[in-house]
Amino acid sequence: MTAASATVAPPKRRLRDRLPVVHQVRQSVGLQRGMLVAGLVMVGVFILTSLLAPVLAPYGFAQRKDASGAFGTQQPPSLEHPFGTTVGGYDVLSRVIWGTQTAIVVIIVAVLLSIFIGVALGLYSGYFGGWLDRVLVVVCDAIYAFPSLLLAIVLSIVISGGQSGLWAGVLAAAGSITVVFIPQYFRVIRAETVRIKAEAYVESAKVLGASNSRVVFKHVLRNATRTLPLIITLNSSEAILTMAALGFLGFGIEPTAAAEWGYDLNKAQSDVTSGIWWTALFPGLAIVFTVLGITLVGESLNDLADPRLRGRRRVAKAAGQVAETSVVPGGTLEAGPGGLRGLEDGESFDEHGIEVKP
Amino acid sequence: MSAVDLTPSPGVSTPGVKPKSQGGGFARYLLVRFLLIFPTIFILVTLVFFLMRTTGDPITAAQGGRLSPEALAALREAAGYDRPLLVQYLEYLGRIVVFDFGTTITTNRPVIDVLATYGPATFELVFYSLIIAFAVGIPLGLLAAYFRDKAPDAFFRVLAIFWYAVPIFFAGLLLKLVFAVWLKWLPVAGRASVGAELQLQTLPNKTGFYTIDALMTGNPAVLGDVLAHAVLPSIALGLLTAGIFLRLVRTNVIGTLSTDYVDAARSRGVAESRLLRKHAYRPALIPIVTVIGLQIALLLAGAVLTETTFEWKGLGFILAEFLESRDFVAVQGIVVLLAIIVALTNFIVDIIAAFIDPRVRY
Question: Where is the ABC transmembrane type-1 domain positioned along the sequence (chain A) (predicted)?
Fold first, then answer.
C-alpha cells in the first residue's frame, strides 16, 4: 500500500446500487422483496390512477346526471354505474377514481411542508442548542404525546375557518397533518444533528474555518437526511388516514369541490344501517389499498435500512450504523433487557437469509 | 458563534437530573416525572387556546349569522370576549387550575359535567379494546417471533400492516354491515337497547359504566345486552391496537431470544417452546408497558372515530356533535380535558414501567 493509493477515492458504487429504491429492491430477499415489490406496484397503480383520472373516470366527481337524465340516488351497481351511486346521486366509481387526485395533493403538500419546517427546526435545534432548543423539544414532545387527530381537528377548524372549498379543504387537511408531523421530523433530524455535530469531520471543518451555515448545510444536513425517505413514506400513509378521518368526522371537502373518500364514507354511514354496501365499501377499499401500498414500501425500506431486521444475505455489503427510524406505532426497536445488540453474533443463516436453528 | 458546545445537549425531558444517587432513585424519579406533567398540559392548553381564538370568538362562531350585529356584540361583551386576548388567556388558565373548563354554549352545561356523563362510556370502550388488543396481539406476536422468517411470521406481519392500513371507521362500518345488518347477530349501534337503557337510567346510584350498572341491576338480560353492544366497537378499536402489539412483541422477543442468557438456557437443553414462554417472553413485555403510554393517545383518537361510527355516546361522540354545532367552548374544554387525561395516563404508565424495570429510573 503506497501513500498514493491511500488518497485515491474508493470506487463509486454502480449507479443501479445508488438509486434509492432500486438499490433496496436488489438488496432485499424473500418476503421482504415480495412486500417491497407489491407495495411499489400498488403505489404505482395509485399514482397512475390519479394522473389518468380524467381518462379513467366515467363521469365527473360532482356529476349527478348525464344525457339520459339524473343518475338516481343509492342505485345498486349496474353497467352504467359499476360501483352504484351515492345517497347524493353521485357515481361511486368516478368519485373513487377522482379521490386519488385529492389524496395525492394532500400528501404532497403535507409532506413537503412538514419536511421543510421540521428539518429546519431540527437542524437549528440540534446544532445550536440553547434555550430555543429546550423550548422546541418540550413543545414537540407535548404535541407528540397528544392524540394527533384531535389536534388535526382543531387545526382544520382554524385553517378552513368553517368553509370547505377545494383549496380551503385541501389546505386544512394538509396543514393540520403538517403540524402533527413536524415533531417527528424534528426529533429525527435533531437527534442525527446532535450525533453528527460530534463527528470528527465536523470538527475538522470548523478548525478549517468553515462558517456555521457551511457546516450545517454541507456536512450536517447531507448526513442527517438519510432516514427521511422512510419517514416520508410512512407519513404519506398517515396523511391519507388523517385526511379520511377528518372527512369522516365532517371536516372534509364539499363533494362539488373535490372527491374525498372520507367524506363519502361519512355520507355512507346511514346507508350501511339499511344494508346498502356499495357506497361504503369502495371508497373504504380505496383508502385501504393506497395506505397498504405506501406502508408496505415504507416498512420494507425501514426493515432493509436496519441490519437487525433485514434478510441476511447481503448484510456485509450494506451494513452500517442505523438510527431509530420507524414511525409506525409499534415499529420502534426499543430493546429489551440485553438489547438487540447480541443479535448479529451467534446466529447463523443459510444462503437464503433464513436463520438456521442450532 | 465560535464556541459551539460540542457535548450532546442533555435530554431535556430530564432537566437537571443526573444519575447520581442510585438508592433513592425511585422517589426522585416519581417527583420529577410528576412535575413534568405540568409543562405538557400548559403547552397544550396554550396551543389550543390561541389556535381556537384565531378563528374569532366562540360566540360569533356559534351564533354567527343568526343574530343581529348589536345582539352579538352584547353577548360577546357579557361573556367578556371583547377584552384583550391576553387577559382572557390568563383568566382561562386561572379557571383551569380550579378545574373549571367553561360552560358549553349550545347546551349551557359545565364541560366538567360533560366529562362525568360521557367519560365512563369512553373508558369502557378503551378498556374492552385493550383487552382485545392484548388477547390478540401478544399471542400472535409470540408466534410470529417463534416462526421468524417462516410462513406464519410472514402472514402475521402482513396482517399487522393490513390492520394498520384499514381506517378504524371503515372497519367499523364493515363489521356493522356484516354482523349487525346482514347476519343480525349483534346490535347496530348504541351502548344498550331501549329497554335495558331504561333499567340502567333508573338505577338509584348509577356509575355511568354500563357494565357495572348492569351488574347492579342483577338482571342477566341487561348485562348480556350491554356486552353485546360493546362487541363490535371494541373489536374495531382493539384490532388496530392488536396490530401494534403484535409488531412490538415480535421485535422484542426476537431481540431477547438471542441474548446470552437465552443461549445459556438453550445450551442447558431447555426446550425451544419453554425458552419462548419463560425466558424471552417476559423481558420482552417490559418495553410494551412503556409503549402502551403512547398508545393511549392513539386509542383516544381511535375512540373518537369508533364512537362516531357506532353512535357510542362517549366523549368522542359528543365532541363530534359539538364540532358540528360549532360550539368551540365545549370543543376546547373537551380537548384540554383529554390532554390532561393523556398526560396523567402517560405519567402512570411511566411509573409502572419504572417500577417493573429499574433501568428506566434515572
Answer: 100-298
